[in-house]
Amino acid sequence: MKTSRRTFLISSIGVASTLALSRTAFAADAPKVEENDPTAQALGYKLDASKVDKAKYTKFVAGQDCGNCSFYQGKATDAFAPCPMFANKQVASKGWCSAYNKKA
Ligand code: SF4
């Protein structure tokens, strides 16, 4: 009984590690959002926040970018990371879209 419980725990840890690894690999492999993507156009996404159409997106403030948005699924130092607004495709840390929400 003890052996089978230990075996179960060891194999559970193995499965959990494998899932964690494949999730990381999946995030890194996710395609990057292109500016001509229909969702990107609808949200005014730009790879470079300095290129945002400031006349159209008047709420944009210099200094806002994906890297400091609450939706960015990576570290601020990651050049690209998934964003749930784009079905977890990767957006640029220096990018911006109109769904921007300052990270607390
Ligand atoms: Fe970038 Fe935030 Fe827009 Fe996602 S929601 S693209 S992280 S500004």
From TrEMBL:
Belongs to the high-potential iron-sulfur protein (HiPIP) family. Specific class of high-redox-potential 4Fe-4S ferredoxins. Functions in anaerobic electron transport in most purple and in some other photosynthetic bacteria and in at least one genus (Paracoccus) of halophilic, denitrifying bacteria. Keywords: 4Fe-4S, Electron transport, Iron, Iron-sulfur, Metal-binding, Signal, Transport. It holds the Pfam family HIPIP. Residues 1-27 form the signal peptide. PROSITE patterns: HIPIP, TAT. The keyword Disulfide bond does not apply. This is High-potential iron-sulfur protein. GO terms for biological process: aerobic electron transport chain. The keyword Membrane does not apply.
